[in-house]
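Deliverable D4.2, example record:
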Amino acid sequence: MTLILCDCSGQARNYNIIFGSTNWLNFYNEQLTIIPSTFAVTARNATMSEPDGALSLVVDETGIHNANFDLVQGGSAQDLGWPARLASLLILPKPEAPFHYFVFVNTPEVDKQAGYVEVDMSLNLGAGGVVGSGTTWYMNNTTAKMAATPHVNGVDYWVLQHADGTDTFHAFQFGPGGLNPVPIISATGPVLSATSVPDRLSSDFWGPMKFSVSGDQLAFGFDHAPDSAGAAVFWFNSSTGTVTVRNSSLAYTAYDLDDLTGDTIAVTLPMDFTSGTDFLATEDFLYVAYLDTSTTDGDGGFFGTQYDLTVCDGCIPHTSLASNTSSVGSGTEWGADTTGGSLILGPDGRLYLRNARSNEGFLLRFDNVPHEFNTSVGGLTVISSLDLHETWGVPLVCKRYHDSEPAWLGVTERQAAASFRAVPNPITERAALVWGNSPPPDHLVWRDAMGRLVRSEPALNNGPTTVLARKELPAGLYVLEVYRKGKPLGSTRVMIE
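Output generated by the structure prediction step:
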């Protein structure tokens, strides 16, 4: 998912993240709930919301969908030339071009390409369409690692890729004119091993890459050696697009103090895969999730690790605090998606870790972070749903905060847009009512152009949208009133053809 984070000056705030095949994480006024959806997204996916929080785009391995979950014109995977399986997806608003978005895509180990598709959501009465045809492939020999952060000029973005089998980052500047195909190249940090065959536990290819909130720091997962995954942290210059390594020796090591002697005790365990990285909003602590697939001793699972970034670069590994934050146990199968990211900084500024056990989907929220040095990373709240089973990797985000508060990224002219709108509009038989800075509605009232009541019905919610069905209504202009618990939330005009 690409988050457009906002400071709504006291207004309600609403964000949605796809979590699992038919479930969405809904952040309303920083309160997290899981809401069901009939749209069964694939393992690699991303979403884009309008500045008012209303859903606009959903992209997965089948193609590019609008808020009604219909494919936009020219947006099927076949039209776009995508392989059946993807490595990464990210959506960014095109600077200074309202309604236009770029969908960035990385293909997996066999193809190893990076490409983009431009989408104009003003086409086809708001149902959207692809600009041009197919995908523009702009880089070969990529890993799955992809991340984006705003340029220091406040308009453009940097889209960061890492070349497979090398130590080179490629930073592409993305602005009002589109993507500059000539990258800024930085050779720094570890050399990632070349990928020749699919390997679901290759941290060099699949291990996540994340920017800090301001974009000044960067972290990714990689393989120190076979069956020994680690992480590296870097500085990023958002003016020049250059990357400089801070430390590439991060591993799963738990440091503690001996109560009797006061000596520091270090315990290091080999890990199979680096499954997640992210920073606190304050950017003074980095968190890495390691995956141990061994269950012979009953200790397989996710291991969360905290690193202090306020110390000298060479000292960072020695600040590590670690614990088993999601134990698996002997005989438990892994879920279908081990390659997807497992750690995310949510819109509420809190860290979330997904579980990857087979048919046991839930999130773990880190409580009371950061932790003191002589403790372990612990204190977790389980967030789950009876309908939630298999979970996919948490999606990529582009994020930025000002003074610890969320801030708008791009398309600022549309902040005043209504919270409710129908897509498409006019509608024929069916449409979606998308809602932004609002909780889910529970009732709809239809009125004709004269204000007369023509239909009153329960709201049929489907993820972050409400299904609008024409049924018996004749063609004409209607006012749709939206309610929750008997109180009006807002209204919008709907034209039926």
